[in-house]
């Protein structure tokens, strides 16, 4: 033991304090001469023998610790280990017995396995629950971003349940003071947001209220903005104002952007409440602190609502002076031959930032144009003077290019007021402007002249618009339309195809191209055009009707019926489409369906002669003549000069057995048309059967009329020519009306219903015999081929 102390004393003597200039590693190679002799020692009370300690000089000193553990440097398993501070660490050339070269320790075998964590400990359970809660919040947010709002709400609720379980676990484990407030805040906020997204406003308000009332959450007062938004959606405007103001009070002036947005919301709520003065106060404050185009537009609306002219002008000037903070487009134009600079310009020309700048500029221009069109008629005594003031104001601002567009809108306002001359004069002033404005003005002029059916002028201005801008699809459509009305369908189709090459989404060009192919009897190509158009305009009844008509022309009535059924699904009360369905079903032999659709067409539009005639003939064929009377009586009101409808009414009375009413009807017809032979024949027969004295009078009149007819039909060339000329020139001639009736209603030799047979004149014809053939003239198709509606001439004709 004294030796150990000696060794310790010797070592302490060789220890030097490291000074600033000393070598930190000096003294380690010094040794005590006492270690040169071999000594062994055995500690009493231990069974461990001491092993010699090897020094750098090969001496062996058997030293052990007081616990029987060999000292550092003692020989173990035959391998000598250099003593610290005596022999340097590393490799040695003097290998002791049993030693092998194994610097990586690979001879010891694989390392023992790591100890597994005990997941049953409270700390591990708490960590696991925290991870599950965070994962559920993330899944809820992802579900919301993908539009699955119900799934997002379920995940948020589950996260809330897990978070409450986590709190209980902490309390049971004695870690109640380590509650994660940030996690609790995230769970409650996400749950409130998901309730609001699913329109569960009471639940959302309760969740927000839990957060706001908890003093441990910092800046929770801002969430009163969300609560105010919910009250706004519920149209509880006073409470929305209250919560917006409470949120505004809790946000410091350092957060200027947030305060501006809340003030803007307050102004919008005041507008909804009709308190324009209060809204103006909010908007004026915003325009003085941080102006933006939306607030400027809202301010103009408020002044317009209270009709303050000068304030409207001032607000408009503020609107056009709002700085947008975007770069000029010239920045993206290459200015030198530097390839690297040009590559950078090309890279940033269409990046997201530049796209955002373009969108912001387009939004500002939209607000400015809308505001100008709104206030122009109100700020001056006439709308023209107001437009001129707005145009002059724009010309002195950063929106100079909008001045021309506003002047075009002035012309369109003239059009809406039916003042076409002023519109034309206004548009003609653009003939010397730049190409874009000139093309737009010429397009509108072409449209105006087309409406007035001055197709030569329309064609001229369409050419002018094309010359100014050959890539203007509206100008090409107008040009094609002027050619179409001249029946040059091939050339019209070429213009429409060129318009489609310039703008593949131009539906007007595709529609007119289909009409052109239809006129050229290229039905398959027309069908292809309208099928493409239907893929773009899924609910266009006009397109679907054209498809039905094409299938009818292609002799595929079933397909035509299917497309007409789609038309009915869009406009179920269109009488022409219903009548067309009736015609197609009648052609297919389905009388019941035909009657259904004709009857529906008559219900919505009871003035279609073709439908009335079909329904009347249907009831006569089914032996319900009394039901046919109401239809023919309506026809007499629509066409009072056509005697055939009145004859049909009288015949229906006669065939239903009401002879007295039939006689009265025939007498009334005779008073209106005294030279009608059919009416006189029926009067003679009825009076004879009923034993009336007027029979001789009517017989005399009948003979006189027949004699006059014979005189007219004498072989006199001049008289025959005169008669034919008169019959062709006047559609009211009795002979023509009779012949038309006879063609539509073939003769029948069925005997008259009488108690005893009577001798009838050989020329007698019963206009409503049982073998009558109903005409198959269906309802007129809804969209005529050569009808040119506004939409067929391009969107740019009447820009909004």
From TrEMBL:
Pfam families to which the protein is assigned, alphabetical: TPR_12, TPR_16, TPR_6
GO molecular function ontology, one term from the record: kinesin binding
Top-level division of the source organism's lineage: Eukaryota
Region (Disordered): 94-121, 713-800
Acetylation as UniProt keyword: no
Keywords associated with the record: TPR repeat
Protein name (database record): Intraflagellar transport protein 88-like
